[in-house]
Amino acid sequence: MSDKLGILGYDYVEFFVGSAKMWAYWHAKTLGMDIVGYSGSETGVKGRTSYFLVKNNFKLVITAASKPSEYEITSFVSKHGDGVKRWSLKVKDVNTAFENAISNGAIPERAPQKSEDEKGWVEEAAIKLYDDAEIVFVNRENYNGIFMPGFGKPIQDIQLKAEETGLMAIDHIVGNVRINEMNLWANYLNKSLNFETFIDFGPGDISTKYSALLSKVVRSKEGASVKNPINEPYEGIKKSQIEEYIDVYLGSGIQHIAVATPDIIKTIAALRANGAEFLSVPDTYYDGLKERGMDVTEDIDELKKNGILCDTEGDGYLLQLFTKPISDRPSFFYEIIQRRKGAQGFGQGNFQALFESIEKDQDLRGSLEKNK
Ligand code: FE2
């Protein structure tokens, strides 16, 4: 039982970026998040600047170096570009989770450590993930201040006009790894976090005319509240999006975060009005949906108008859409997802249309050909 680690669900995700302030602005303006916390020299933290952003249960920390000597951040950003450094799991007891993970094969990054101020205490520990990322075990239950010690209110009162996006919480976090690394990391997560493999897409399950990938989804055994797909390139005649990621990110790392909404039509319309850029699928995709006679509550013309994808799964279905990469390198992007009637999957029925759309963008970047 995953309960022996006391995992309660996702907590925050932290990015390392070139400019935390600009990234915070983008997330506030585009995803409609609130900038509720700030950490930097004004709050007694030297060398780095962080913003804490919240939208319902979706929480991000965006961090940049404010001094060139902050090597943990500067070396990460100079190698990978802007990207996810760590994602965290809320646990009942950090020590128990960490000791359990380590005794089951996890690679330690940071031993349990408490930080304290007059508002209470927070405890964290971390294990290694992929080339240069971490999974953090965190307990913030005994802290009443903003996020954790070292954070205060934002120095500037940043008021940005954004449409209400209704984003609720992290649904899943996806990693991209090199050829032959998928099983290694799936086994690592299953063993050290006591997860299980939930879906296994083998050769031929996910492919277009040009490229292919393999994917395994691991998840926590209890309540399936934490889900982590892992993608690996598979042989194709052209370069797959996973290979492109590995090339531009210089290694394995986090590819996307899926954020759940209870009303995807409203959410996508708001995100588009806020300036988000999404992958586009051809109009013929929706003819196919109508022909398949899918039993969905939403109006298909409304889905078409907003470019939203739909995939059925038993009695349930899911609605989803992917942004274009949000920073300079074609690496990290967001997915917006709404699960209906208990759907648990990841939109396999949409992969074809989606990957053809990604390949169109790859072609524009000149990175679809193998030798580039
Ligand atoms: Fe996804």
Description of the molecule:
The protein has 372 residues and is an alpha+beta fold. The protein folds into 2 domains: 7-139, 2,3-Dihydroxybiphenyl 1,2-Dioxygenase, domain 1 (Roll), CATH 3.10.180.10; 169-365, 2,3-Dihydroxybiphenyl 1,2-Dioxygenase, domain 1 (Roll). The chain has helices at residues 20-30, 71-80, 94-103, 182-193, 241-249, 264-273, 284-291, 300-306, 351-365; strands spanning 7-16, 34-39, 48-55, 58-65, 83-91, 108-117, 120-129, 133-139, 169-176, 195-201, 212-220, 227-234, 253-260, 309-313, 316-322, 333-340. The protein has an 8-stranded mixed β-sheet with strand order 2-3-4-1-5-8-7-6. Bound molecules: fe (ii) ion. Fe (ii) ion (FE2) binds next to strand 9 and strand 13.
Q: How many structural domains?
A: 2
User: What structural category do the secondary elements indicate?
Assistant: alpha+beta
Tell me which oligomeric state these chains represent. Answer: single chain
What's the helix count?
9
CATH C-level class of the largest domain: Alpha Beta
Mean pLDDT, to the nearest integer, reads 92
Layout of secondary structure:
Elements (H helix, E strand, L loop, with lengths): L6 E10 L3 H11 L3 E6 L8 E8 L2 E8 L5 H10 L2 E9 L2 H10 L4 E10 L2 E10 L3 E7 L29 E8 L5 H12 L1 E7 L10 E9 L6 E8 L6 H9 L3 E8 L3 H10 L10 H8 L8 H7 L2 E5 L2 E7 L10 E8 L10 H15 L7
Parallel strand pairs: 1-4, 5-8, 9-12, 13-16
Antiparallel strand pairs: 1-5, 2-3, 3-4, 6-7, 7-8, 9-13, 10-11, 11-12, 14-15, 15-16
The protein binds fe (ii) ion (FE2).
Fe (ii) ion binds next to β9 and β13.
